Amino acid sequence: MSFFPDVPTIKYEGPSSRNPLAFRHYNADEIIEGKPMRDHFRFAVAYWHTMRGQGADPFGPGCAVRPWEDGTDSVDMAIKRVRVMFEFLEKLGVGFYCFHDRDVAPEGANLRQTNAILDQVVKVLKEEQQRTGIKLLWGTANLFSNPRYVHGAATSCNADVFAYAAAQVKKCLEVTKELGGENYVFWGGREGYTTLLNTDMKRELDHLAKFFHMAVDYKKKIGFTGQFLIEPKPKEPTTHQYDFDAAACLNFLRQYGLTDHFKLNLETNHATLAGHTMMHDMIVASSAGMLGSVDANRGDLLLGWDTDQFPTDLYLTTSIMMVILDQGGLAPGGLNFDAKVRRESFEPVDLFHAHIGGMDAFARGLKVAAKIRADGVLKDFVKQRYASWDSGIGAEIEQGKVGFAELETYMLNKGNPDKNVSGRQEMLENILNGYIELA
């Protein structure tokens, strides 16, 4: 039985194709900088949006047409969704997927029942992975939807909730290991505060760190070799979340001795909500050796909330790929489409259109980034801009050979600094435009 009977396997047809169900730029086998496109991206599909999203918004219930759904959250329905998901992945030609535990399996009456239900669904996930060769990029536990997490999970004021969250993560780590997951993500959906009037911030941060250290200990105990990732987000649903942005996460990891055990999974819409560009947060993380994976989406700059739209902006995909290429790739991380079709795009085929567009946009971004790197236009300009640091007094400052006294003597003798040179921002933007036009 096919759940998408009118959709063929998506093929690469080239830039001249006008087939909306074909790739125009994403050619999985095309070699860029020595490896196939598929290996640069390691594309993954988000189970929560693609399989569970129904198009609901604050003003109305979901209107998505999903013929396979029976209106229940039963175990049988959960197993059926697995079959739907893997048909989608196969036809799209994507090698990875990501999930929260509650995306793939419903909760039972208590933790014991919930774990047993998850085991039933994991058995089917494993069968489908073995049948198709598709892999789990990362798993994670949903520690934010159930009312028990109203005050947070690892930062809850209720110790029993902390204990329940720990047990839930323990199980999800075991499942991720069983499925061969290459990463495990922690996203603190409610790890933050709404008001400081009822919050002991230091205690909550200490508890969050204890939670992460427990996870590291259990990872070692069960022999899980996947990469641990923390996903920053500044706000929504809380007023302030402790994993505000890349810099805040890095500071937290350093403060609590966790830098050897975690990297970051960055998301565009989260970066923009923090007041940054995605390139900013990526460079912050990459410069620290902590960029592990990327959730690929974008926000609507006219709206101040997390819209999770598919990435179609070539400036965005080019800037992301420049950082990824500069650091030598993302593996074992990847590019996960944490994005959802718009409420008005409610037919099953729209899921394909959305992912095709995102994959093509990243393919073009990769080609632009690789061409810019090959020509050296930006790198050479930046190197020249900082040339005063490569010799003379600049080199001595960087090498720690001088202090304030020596620098005072240097400037007393010289009189005035050398003249500044233009940053040429507009010229560089024109150059970037030229490369994008040719992609």
The percentage of residues in β strands lies in 5-15%
What's the alpha carbon Rg, rounded to whole Å? 24 Å
Shape: globular
| Number of DSSP helical runs | 16
Uncertain segments: none
Largest sheet: 8 strands, parallel, barrel
Q: What is the N-to-C succession of helices and strands?
A: EEEEHEHHEHHEHEEHEEHEHHEHEHHHHH
- What percent of residues adopt helix (DSSP H or I)? 40-55%
Distance between the termini: 40 Å
Widest beta sheet: strand line-up:
5-6-7-8-10-12-13-14
Average pLDDT rating: 97
Give the class from helix and strand content and strand pairing. Answer: alpha/beta
Number of beta strands: 14
Walk me through this protein's architecture.
- This protein is of the alpha/beta class and 439 residues long.
- 46% of the residues lie in helices and 11% in strands.
- It has 16 helices and 14 strands.
- It has helices at 37-41, 47-50, 75-92, 101-104, 111-132, 159-178, 201-222, 246-255, 268-273, 278-287, 314-326, 348-375, 377-385, 392-398, 404-414, 425-438; strands spanning 11-12, 22-23, 31-32, 35-36, 43-46, 96-100, 135-140, 183-186, 192-193, 227-230, 240-241, 262-267, 291-295, 335-337.
- The strands form 4 sheets. An 8-stranded parallel beta barrel has the order 5-6-7-8-10-12-13-14, surrounded by 4 helices. A two-stranded parallel ribbon has the order 1-2. The chain has a two-stranded antiparallel ribbon with strand order 3-4.
- It is globular and about 80 Å long.
